[in-house]
Amino acid sequence: MEIDYGNLEDYPKEFIENWEKTRKPIFEANVKKALARDWFEDPYLNEIYDRMMGPFSGPRIWTRVVEALHSREFTYIIPLDENRYKDGLSWRKKIDPHRSGPCTVLEMMCGLADRMEVEIMQDTRYGDRTATWFEEMLYSLGLYNFYDEVYDEHKVKMIIDKFLRREYTKTGKGGLFTFKKPVPGDPRNEEIWYQMNWWVSENF
After folding, report:
1. Exposure winner among 7, 11, 84, 199, fewest CB in 10 A?
2. What is the pLDDT of residue 11?
3. Are residues 95 and 6 in the same domain?
4. How far is CA 122 from CA 3, 6, 38, 90, 140, in A?
5. Does residue 47 lie within any of the structural domains?
6. Same domain, 48 and 2
7. Which domain holds residue 6?
8. Residue 136 falls within a domain, yes or no?
9. How many CA atoms lie less than 13 Å away from 65 in the CB half-sphere?
10. How many structural domains is the chain composed of?
11. Which pLDDT tens digits describe the chain residue by residue (204 residues)?
12. Which DSSP state fits 163?
């Protein structure tokens, strides 16, 4: 059930009491974090969040999803997806040139969103839409609804596992891009770059 925070009196007493004890403290803490633009102890993750999620998060916060994506190395089955791995490392170098380690799923997504904007979707009429492309990937993966107040560690892990194993549907749902109409190939067997281009062609 979605809560209208301005009209709690419209809800049953038991619901309000439960909200006061459980969700309200998280909500208030998230608002403070958003106002301070200080979501993580790690400045690198703060920078990522500010660029990729800050523009659309509002009072909802996805810090735990970001941490989950950043805790997993981006492994790939399709050889050409090595390019997405490299994009993630290149994007990291722009933000923190001294950071090392394997490319994470989060960094790969950031690198891809950045490349989409710079090489394909850049349009001065709309400004920088890098965060929009990142948001679309969260939707397609099925992670958008796991903001901090309703985060489910087990389900999020399963979603990331299935993505890395390419166990998403033929429409791309569960992967980075979901299609409304049939595409030239099975996205489960095609590199991510092809999937992205199909999605752009379908929507723009």
Report:
1. 7
2. 57
3. no
4. 36, 38, 28, 19, 21
5. yes
6. no
7. 1-36
8. yes
9. 27
10. 2
11. 444 445 555 556 666 666 566 665 655 555 555 444 567 889 999 999 999 987 665 667 899 999 999 999 999 999 999 999 999 999 999 999 999 999 999 999 999 999 999 999 999 898 999 999 999 999 999 999 999 989 999 999 999 999 999 999 999 999 999 999 999 999 999 999 999 999 999 999
12. H
| 62 close to 135: Cβ distance less than 8 angstroms | no
In 3D space, the residue among 57, 84, 60 whose CA is nearest the CA of residue 73 turns out to be 84
Cα 23 to Cα 27, 30, 35, 73, 152: the distances in Å are 6, 11, 18, 31, 14
- Same-domain check for residues 12 and 76: no
Q: Taking the CB of residue 181, how many other CB atoms lie within 10 A of it? A: 7
Q: Which residue has the tokens 């999020």?
A: 156
Cβ atoms of 196 and 113 within 8 Å: the answer is no
